[in-house]
Amino acid sequence: MGISARIVKRIITLLIVTLGVVTLSFCLQIFTGTDPAEMLVRKTTLFATEEQIQAMRVELGLDGTLSEQYADYIKGLLTGDLGISITNRKPVIDNIRNALPVTCMLVIMSMLWVAILTVLISAFSVIWKDKAFDHATRVICIIGICVPSFWLALILLIAFAVEIPIFSVISDGSIKSLILPSISIAIPIACISIRVLRAAVINELKSDYVTYAKARGFSTSKIVYGEVLRNAFPSAITLFAQYCASVFGTSALIETVFSIQGLGYYLTEACESMDVYGISGVVLICAILFVLFNTAADIFSGIICPAYRRKRV
């Protein structure tokens, strides 16, 4: 199977999974037991009448059959309509559009830290396998995996914003203000990724081509950086993509600690207000991003590593 056929296959799979995600998001709105029309009316009217609630149901299209509501939901998605937020009575898509840029910057910075730390430390751990650096890295990674990111965020905030006021306590949206939260998110992910990539590299070093390269006199560092890392990358890339997508929805605690008005912060507000449209909108965006990142990781792994491509055929 050629690479173009594999990409087409991945895209078809992506479309099918996306349709499933959209359907689950619709079910989240319908079967939560919360009436969005009643919540919206009672948000603005203290003594809401049944007539007002029914009129809001008609306005929101909740008076139709299940199939009609699903068709309206799909039409709304195609036009960018995710409903009206109960939290502030603004379109959900506008709330997400306002919150997404800062979260994107936070995710990009976090994943840059993860990529740099993972590649460098994993390579050095393999080169100095079973030596002091490798043992120290193992201990640090185990501690880093166990440490909750929000607790690490509080420690960094106290240390570098209160005791040593290098950074601001409240985020102002600048790159500098995102350094501490991005490190808080990156360290636990990097610790996991380092262990995964190190194991993949060590397993790859047992391959025949590595034995041949050593017999020709190539140094361990040249073998690791030249071929082994590229062939060991698929597992790390898949993990990286999954975390990259999940951070969009799981950054709520970090954004709350640093007062960042991002997507996770908006999701927290929506949950507190029982905002069904806000919750399902954020979940839908995060789920689609998760599917997109995993598909991209699968395609990218096949491009950089022919052996992985053959396994996936």
From TrEMBL:
Q: Which residues form the ABC transmembrane type-1 domain?
A: 100-301
Q: Which domain of life is it from?
A: Bacteria
Q: Which GO terms describe its molecular function?
A: dipeptide transmembrane transporter activity
The alphabetical list of record keywords is: Cell membrane, Membrane, Transmembrane, Transmembrane helix, Transport
Q: Which GO cellular component terms are attached?
A: plasma membrane
Q: Does the keyword Acetylation apply?
A: no
Regions crossing the membrane: 12-31, 99-127, 139-166, 178-197, 240-267, 279-308
- Keyword Ligase set for record: no
State where the protein is found.
Cell membrane
Show the CDD domains listed in the entry: TM_PBP2
Gene3D superfamilies hit by this protein? MetI-like
The membrane topology term of the UniProt record is: Multi-pass membrane protein
Q: Which family does it belong to?
A: Belongs to the binding-protein-dependent transport system permease family.
Protein name according to UniProt: ABC transporter permease
Q: What is the phylogenetic placement of the source species in the record?
A: Bacteria, Bacillati, Bacillota, Clostridia, Eubacteriales
